[in-house]
Amino acid sequence: MAPLSKEPNEAEILLNRVNVALARSQRLISSWLPQNVADEDDPPNTQEKLVEANNELFQPDSEL
Question: What span, in angstroms and rounded, lies between the C-alpha atoms of 2 and 54?
Fold first, then answer.
């Protein structure tokens, strides 16, 4: 039986590092901003909406 995980390539490692850095930057910047009262009235995102948003944001460029 083959192992379930494969060795990540350099592009995957780099993409993960960029995503972590982006998330840290977004958290830091959002901590500087005042909390928006209107956001509290919005319904929470469903898992489906979150996955769709991530897919739109993190699509690889065709130039790579």
Answer: 30
In the chain, alpha helices (H): 10-32, 37-41, 47-57
Residue 18: per-residue pLDDT: 94
For 1-64, where are the E strands, in sequence order? none
pLDDT (tens digit per residue) in 3-15: 567 888 999 999 9
- Measured CA to CA, the distance from residue 27 to residue 35 in angstroms comes to 13
Q: Would you place residue 36 in the very low, low, confident or very high pLDDT band (cuts 50, 70, 90)?
A: low
Contact 57, 23 (CB under 8 A): no
